[in-house]
Specification:
The chain has one helix and nine strands; from the N terminus they run αβββββββββ. By secondary structure, it is mainly β. The protein has an eight-stranded antiparallel beta barrel with strand order 1-2-3-4-5-7-8-9. A hairpin with a 2-residue loop joins β2 and β3. The radius of gyration is 24 Å and the shape is elongated. The N terminus is likely disordered.
């Protein structure tokens, strides 16, 4: 009787040990297509280059929207989405000091490289482009004065984007993504001073 109880306890402890080992070493299978939602606070500024009398200060903005990853080979993905991106920056010009708020609908197009999943997480890096279309542009030059439409704001914004982060696999069909992105604009944001706007962003997303 005692031997039977000891044998049962040994089997139970062994099963629990193997289950614990499997928990820390196993992975969820990568999905060929993942869709999700994302929210990214950003810190943006204007780049005036050699324009005299123009200076910029960085301010906080944010973006949100839908994201999608399409796998075409192991650990290789095409990443895209549909985002609403609000970029805010302060500026000193030869005429006045103001704050510019530019809002774009953006479509990112990037190659995403993902590491092999271990302990239910994987690391990724991505590189690509973003194309944005202006939906709103505002200028504030004093606490009591706002102009709903900024004159000379360009309709199209193109940028180069690079970033990376960690994807945390919470379940077979649920992942939480964290990361950081640098987005470098290479088209003019507006006519006065001909600046380009760029930003750093912290990325948070949930993929299903």
């Amino acid at each position: 009787m005692k031997k039977g109880i000891l044998l049962a306890l040994f089997v139970l402890i062994g099963a629990q040990f193997l289950r614990a080992q499997d928990y820390y070493s196993s992975t969820y299978q990568d999905k060929p297509i993942s869709l999700g939602i994302t929210l990214s606070p950003n810190l943006s500024w204007m780049q005036y280059g050699d324009a005299n009398g123009y200076e910029s200060t960085a301010k906080l903005g944010f973006s949100y929207g839908l994201a999608a990853d399409f796998g075409f080979a192991p650990n290789y993905y095409f990443s895209t989405g549909l985002l609403v991106n609000t970029m805010v920056s302060g500026a000193t010009t030869p005429v006045h000091e103001g704050t510019y708020r530019l809002q774009y609908v953006e479509i990112p197009l990037a190659l995403k490289l993902k590491s092999t999943q271990r302990y239910f997480r994987s690391y990724y890096g991505q590189f690509g482009f973003t194309s944005g279309f202006k939906v709103n542009a505002k200028e504030k030059v004093s606490p009591d004065y706002k102009r709903s439409e900024l004159e000379g704001a360009n309709l199209l914004r193109l940028a180069l984007q690079i970033g990376g982060g960690v994807e945390w696999q919470l379940d077979h069909n649920l992942a939480f993504v964290t990361g950081i992105t640098y987005n470098n604009g290479f088209t003019k944001a507006m006519k006065p001073g001909s600046p380009k706007n760029s930003y750093f962003a912290l990325n948070f997303g949930v993929f299903f």
